[in-house]
Specification:
It is a single chain. This protein is α/β, with parallel strands linked by helices. The protein contains seven helices and eight strands, in the order E-H-H-H-E-H-E-H-E-E-H-E-H-E-E. It has helices at 29-39, 46-59, 68-81, 101-105, 118-121, 158-164, 187-194, and strands at residues 6-9, 90-93, 111-115, 130-133, 146-152, 165-175, 198-205, 208-215. An eight-stranded mixed beta sheet has the order 1-7-8-6-5-2-3-4. Bound molecules: S-adenosylmethionine. The site of S-adenosylmethionine (SAM) has 23 residues, from helix 2 and strand 3.
Length: 220
């Protein structure tokens, strides 16, 4: 029998300011895909992968002008959500042009940025990160090889997260404008999708939301 996911919600340290961002998430075609994959990662077919890669290839030239909000939410998640000891390497899924990657290389030595879109990856602005063209549904990574897995506004492939994450590893999920983000899932859905044995800590920063999920250990 599966038990309910355990997510501890922390009060925000950085409150939202200014006008709320437009809700560009509700009804967005990428939201539909996000929901589909959260329920069943097997719904990711080769033709869907080609469609999504093409979609982001087209957006890539205009991507990444003002993406500071993304890294601010990620930094809050890293500051408040991570265990004291984090093992490397760090793998970022759907890194895009590197808005989150830069925050990762600022604090970790071995960071790999993965993306499905060639046009995003060639524009990745994080010289200290290795980059790999890869599909997060089938990562070219051995089992339990990753200490920290990061997804900023990226689809959830829960079975692959479980496979590559080390026993004491952490998975960071960020939605830069919270539920208004096209690729959004609430923290409870993320932890629920990861399945039995995972728990999470979640909060918000500005208009963004984050969750850090880990396997429950005997110390918890
Ligand atoms: C909404 S963008 C976010 C990019 C970046 N994380 C940011 O916040 O600026 C989603 C990114 O995920 C990538 N992506 C989508 N599906 C993917 C998959 N199956 N494997 C790897 N990357 C994928 C897209 O190419 C795109 O770069």
């Amino acid at each position: 029998m599966s038990s309910a996911p355990v997510v501890r919600h922390l009060p925000p340290v950085v409150p939202p300011t200014g006008t709320a961002p437009d809700d560009i998430g509700t009804g967005h075609p990428m939201r539909e895909i996000t929901e589909l994959l959260a329920a069943d990662p097997g719904a990711w077919t080769p033709s869907l992968a080609v469609h999504v890669a093409g979609f982001f290839d087209e957006l890539a030239p205009g991507w990444g002008q003002d993406r500071s909000a993304r890294s601010e939410v990620l930094v809050d998640a890293l500051d408040r959500g991570l265990p004291a000891e984090v093992r490397e390497p760090v793998l970022e899924l759907g890194a895009g042009t590197g808005a989150g990657t830069r925050a990762l290389v600022d604090r970790f030595d071995r960071v790999v940025a993965a993306d499905l879109s060639t046009e995003m990856l060639v524009r990745l602005e994080a010289p200290d990160a290795s980059r790999v063209l890869a599909d997060a549904r089938r990562l070219p990574v051995p089992d339990a090889a990753v200490g920290l897995l990061v997804a900023v506004n990226m689809f959830l492939f829960a079975d692959e997260v479980r496979r590559v994450l080390s026993a004491d590893g952490a998975f960071v999920w960020v939605n830069s404008i919270g539920e208004r983000t096209p690729i959004h899932l609430p923290a409870d859905r993320v932890v629920e999708a990861l399945g039995d044995g995972f728990s999470g800590v979640a909060s918000s920063s500005g208009w963004g939301t984050w969750c850090v999920a880990r396997r429950v250990s005997g110390d918890d």
